[in-house]
Amino acid sequence: MLTVTGLTKVFKGTKRSAAVTAIGELDLEVNQGEFLTLLGPSGCGKTTTLRCVAGLERADKGEISIGGRVMFSDSSRTNVPPNQRNIGMVFQSYAIWPHMNVFENVAFPLRVGKKSMSKPDLQERVHRVLDIVGLGEIPARYATNLSGGQQQRLAFARALVIEPDLLLLDEPLSNLDAKLRESLRFELKRLQREQGITTLYVTHDQTEALSLSNRIAVLSAGKLMQIGKPFDIYLKPEGKFVADFVGNTNFLEGNYLGHAIVDTAIGKLQVSSTEGLREGQPCTISVRPEHIELVEATAPDQPNTFHGEIETRLFIGEAMDYQVIIGDTRIRTKGAGAIGDRFSSGQAIKVVFPVERCVTLSFKQ
Ligand SMILES: Nc1ncnc2c1ncn2[C@@H]1O[C@H](COP(=O)(O)OP(=O)(O)OP(=O)(O)O)[C@@H](O)[C@H]1O
Ligand SMILES: [Mg+2]
Questions:
Q1: pLDDT tens track for 59-114
Q2: pLDDT band at residue 357 under the 50/70/90 scheme
Q3: How sure is the predictor about 156, in pLDDT bands with cuts at 50, 70 and 90?
Q4: By the 8 A CB rule, do 26 and 222 touch?
Q5: Ligand nearest to the CA of 18
Q6: Where in the sequence of the chain do the CATH 2.40.50.140 domains occur?
Q7: Sign of the CA dihedral with 44 first, then 47, 48, and 49 last
Q8: Does residue 221's CB lie within 6 angstroms of at least one atom of ligand 1?
Q9: From the CA of 223, how far away is ligand 1's center (Å)?
Q10: Cut 0.85: pTM above it
Q11: What is the atom index within ligand 1 of the atom nearest the CA of 204?
Q12: Which ligand is nearest to the CA of 44?
């Protein structure tokens, strides 16, 4: 539906600052009805990408097309103005109009739009969209008298009312407190699924990305690091950057010995994937804290079992975080619920690294 090819955007330097390549040769494809998230740290080019797609920023190179229609192309010098791209947008500060009531806020994009609408049609459309976002009961309420969550829903309604081909959302939940953010996450997911609307979402919050998206594109410094389903991004990160940025992880450096065995500082570790690895080659293994098992020191050995000692334990409510020492190596583990409460600081234990959760990372990142 949305195709981005070779997109490059450089912000020119000034006397005091160097030029910044905000996006470098980015390729991206968002399918019809898909919810795709751009995830990455501050300054990696997420907003710039969105603004280029919306036509608010002019890229230097590349091509952007929506539904087969070329919206931007440097080679054919095409640049369709923002209001002719049929895109709905919600930004971080959602800028609803305080001097208008709920109904008028949503009706506004239709009133200024190209196609003039009859009054009954407009009324019908606005009320339908207000019902979708759960504001149907309070059309006459002034926008300033809405709660944060209601303002956010109003911003969604305004984006949806033009029946966009594509919805662009730039950290739309970031202004809200943690509880509200969580509940609106569910609503947003439901809304998107029910409306089947193609969505390009931006966040630097990995939980948000993992829970909402059909696919996630992880960006770093204007480059695409990995694109895939949330499960694969989390369980099969391709490089150190993705493994570290999306969730917490332990890295173990080692040398590949062949037969899916890596020699590391804690000993020989059997790993799940060895694609592209040659014998004798250095490599990094990523194992997530919640995948590591701690067992009694007397428990029978399974594959990938090592002797260790609990250094520190931290109760974090939903789970128990442990720091474990194996030889000279410090490992972080996380046990949920009652299982996590078994061990105390200084206790000798055994540490099990499940083979299928020991992922070798490529060196390209
Ligand atoms: N108008 C501008 N002029 C110069 N540099 C800019 C401009 N807009 C963005 N940049 C730079 O381009 C890079 C990408 O910025 P962008 O706003 O796209 O990041 P982001 O991923 O959205 O970050 P955040 O998560 O903080 O919102 C940054 O280094 C930023 O400083
Ligand atoms: Mg941004």
A1: 999 999 999 999 999 999 999 999 899 999 888 766 788 889 999 999 988 888 66
A2: very high
A3: confident
A4: yes
A5: 1
A6: 249-361
A7: positive
A8: no
A9: 13
A10: yes
A11: 25
A12: 1
Structure tokens at 27: 């390729």
The CATH number of 2-240 is 3.40.50.300
Locate all alpha helices (DSSP H) within 196-256, ordered by sequence.
206-212, 230-235, 240-245
Please state the φ and ψ torsions of residue 240, each to the nearest 5 degrees.
-60, -40
Higher pLDDT pick, 318 / 286? 286
Q: What one-character DSSP code corresponds to residue 334?
A: E
Pocket of ligand 1 contains residue 50 by CB under 6 Å: no
- Tens digit of pLDDT for each residue in 255-266? 999 999 999 999
Q: Please, where in the chain does CATH 3.40.50.300 lie?
A: 2-240
Q: Is the CB of 203 under 6 A from ligand 1?
A: no
Residue nearest to atom 7 of ligand 1 (CA): 11
User: Three-state SS for 93?
Assistant: coil
CA torsion sign for 11, 14, 17, 19 is positive
What fold characterizes domain 249-361?
Answer: OB fold (Dihydrolipoamide Acetyltransferase, E2P) (2.40.50)
